Amino acid sequence: MAEAFSLIHSDRSCLGEQSVSSQSGNRSVRVAEKERRKNEAEDSFVLALKYFTDVEAGTPVTGNDDFENHLVQVEKVAYSRGLAPEAIATMLEFAMSSRMGNGPCVRVLKCLLPASVVPQDCVVRAVAWLCVGKIPVNTKVLFVKWVLTVFDMIEAKDQLRAVYGFIFSFVTEETLVRVWHGYNCLCFVVLVRVFRVRKLLELQSKLGRQPFLLHLLSLYKVFCPELVTLSVPSRMRSGFKNHVNPWKSALIGVQKRNGLQVASGISLTVASKEKTNSRKRKLCHLELPAMNSVVNNEAKTEQSYSLKVVPLVQINSFAQLLENMHRIELPAQMGSLLSSSLALQYLDCVQDESALLRLNFWLGHAFQEEFLFSGDGGACQNSEETLQFLNRLLCAQNFLQEGFYSSETFLYKFLTLWDGSLFRPQILGLLSNIPVIPSSQIERLVFEPLKQLYFTSSLFFKCGLLECMTNMLLRWLTWHSVYALEDDLDISLNSHTSINMTLSGFKDSVMELIHFVGHLACVGLRLEGCHSLLLSFTLDFYETVCDTFLKYGLPLLVMPPPGVFYPAFLATETVSVDRLAFIMHRYKINLASAKSQEKLTEQAFHISRQTISEFNHYVVVMVNCLWNSKMFHTGPGVQLREELLVKSNVPQYWKRFDLIHHHAFMSYAFDFHNQVCGKKSHPWHHSKPWGWYVEYLFTMGFDGLKQFVQTLISPQLPAGITQNQNQQT
Amino acid sequence: MSLLKPFSKLPNINTASILLVESEEHLQQSLADVLVEESSITVNVRLAKSLPLPKENDKDRPRIDLVVFIINLSSEQSFISAEASLKYLDPGYFLGKVCFMVTSARSAAVPTERMDAVRKLAASLHSPLLFAEHQTSEGVAAAAERLLGILKVSAGVVPMTTALYLSNLTRCTLPTDIEQPSFD
């Protein structure tokens, strides 16, 4: 109560300013005046509450000026600052007891805006009044809606759980049941009983498949999948609207005005982890709820220990978690798990299907209602909160090293509506976490929408998407190397689901992904004029691709398309050529080891001729151009007639792309020439200076090139260099 | 009936012209403000509520390189008007010089049938379908950036590619219905 009064104080102070006078002599008078008004306001509010406590049953409403004045007083306070717990209790008691008939009941309920918390006792008492049966149905509905709105502000819920049976009995009343669906908070696992499910099913057969019933059933199904065997249809969005609510906007206003004071008020009563967050729980569904839902005082703790259940919120260290692993009680609001690393540890260790199901349900709901189809058509006035939510989710997924099922389904839907810039880093992060998709679905779900976005978006989106795809591939390959079973037949896609995929199915998906990115990179490089940033991201991707066999044990090797190879090889930056050389070197090692395994064991995978011939072609082109100065010499690649080349008037056109004349290395050649040969013009294309030059390039840090030369041109260095060089005409 | 033709006039050097057609004029103006700030080429922005364009301005109208239909999904009228305007375009435009931009696609109030109808329309005309977050300035800037990318290609400013080639890559496809999350 005291808190409410202090708030009124500050409200009144601005009225005091109306007497505009700057003379200092008036000041003390003004202060006194303010003081007096404040006391008056306090008094009238206290009087009002006293009136509602003491008013006798049967007092008439019409023409009762006292009643009218007092109610106006209470409403004023409620809408400006919210009501203190005691005031809530008094007013709720007054309304539900119908001492002055049912008329004022609705009006009182509408102004019950809590400033901090709602005492549990008064809610339980109100439920008791509800059972008396004097109250008309629409008032009952209003009361239930109110409880739903302020549910998170009720200070403790243990007794409320005890009377859940009564509340449930109202389900039979058809009008009431329509608001019932939102009662997910009350559905604690222990409360799902066979008889309740049976009752619901009975009701459903009587009323037909009503969306609100299905909702409740689906909730039960989430909590206790084995009890509800009914199949719930997947499309249920129209089931209820959470945001249409008479209190919500007023409550937002009250809480905004109260600001931090409310948060501190809550933190006194509940052991909330994030104090500033807790006050907004009901206002913004994307906000992660604090893990406060269950027990929070000493007496309760004793009791729950005797029940051999430990609420997750009471566990503060990893050691405690290990001790109580077998008797953890999950919080009522599963979203709170995301914000606690201990809870995530628990999720990771315990293969608890129902916990994940509930978390996914919460997430799916949060995505669907608040983000994907936000009521205002996407005005992101709460973008800061959404950003935090997505970042937290990403953190949790990175911690668990896997994506949540519901974020995956959300993405498939969202990608088709995305503008390519809204929360781009977060969406791409979530996207890179999705588990392996069967190759029959992957095109439709992911590739098609991404393709449309990629080709119409900026260079930075293109780079971001390629990076995301690289991460996705990495994740898939890591999954394969961790979860592939001994017999190399089945891999479990996800540690928590039982979906299995055959090795060939997995290979198909990975191949689809690699080909898709190859296509993106190819056309993207062309559209962006072989931009070096895009090229760099493309090479990142192929650095993973070239090592699939040795590093991740996946019997699959895919060569880059010419549209990637040539831009990288003919790039003006030395680093791209160097990285390409490294990639070719890794391909060589992978292919060689796959070949040798093929000889050793029969069941090792067969590398297609196509792959090998592609690889050979690329190597021949590289070696001929860089090393042997025999560009356009042989091979199935670019063929130009001799006379055409002569006509081009390029002197020694066959040397244009060797290590000296290649535009990426030209500056190094100049540098080397100045350092070593000085002013004298040596014919340094001869073996000795060539060896020195190659050595010089290696010392400049071109390790990729070095490895390329060592594996693909000459195993011994630098003696071998001269040999190769001698073959040159 | 006067058709708007893509090749009836000569292009100007380093210039691209874009026509934004939107019946409700919500996004048009803000989009135009961002578009004209492009510095690498001169961008002419023309605004229209619907097609056909008035005959009297025909002389000083530049060659239109890209026609963008902006459809606000929350209004039926917006879609009907865009659909009606389409027939005043020369078929040559549908070789990569038309795109659809949809706003309010994430709104809960939008019936799924309307979204499907827009998708069908874009897919049947082999045109890209872009989505825009028109309520934030970042969203408008991002939408303008994407339009510029397409505009540059269709105006022939980007070497190695053509409008037809790009639209072949970006055109809208009809997705088969994506299942909502089921609780099984």
TrEMBL record, chain A:
Localization, per the record, is: Chromosome, Centromere; Nucleus
Alphabetic keyword roster = Centromere, Chromosome, Nucleus
The primary site where this protein sits is nucleus
GO terms (BP aspect) = CENP-A containing chromatin assembly; mitotic sister chromatid segregation
- One GO cellular component term noted in the UniProt record for this chain: inner kinetochore
Query: Belongs to which family?
Result: Belongs to the CENP-I/CTF3 family.
- Protein's recorded name: Centromere protein I
Name the encoding gene, please: cenpi
UniProtKB/TrEMBL annotation, chain B:
GO cellular component labels: chromosome, centromeric region; nucleus
Gene3D superfamilies xrefs: P-loop containing nucleotide triphosphate hydrolases
Identify the keywords attached in UniProt to this record, alphabetized.
Centromere, Chromosome, Nucleus
InterPro entries, alphabetically? Centromere_Cenp-M, P-loop_NTPase
Name the residues that span the membrane: none
Q: Which domain of life is it from?
A: Eukaryota
Does the keyword section mention Nucleus? Answer: yes
Name of the protein = Centromere protein M
Biological classification of the source: Eukaryota, Metazoa, Chordata, Craniata, Vertebrata
The UniProt gene name for this protein comes to pane1
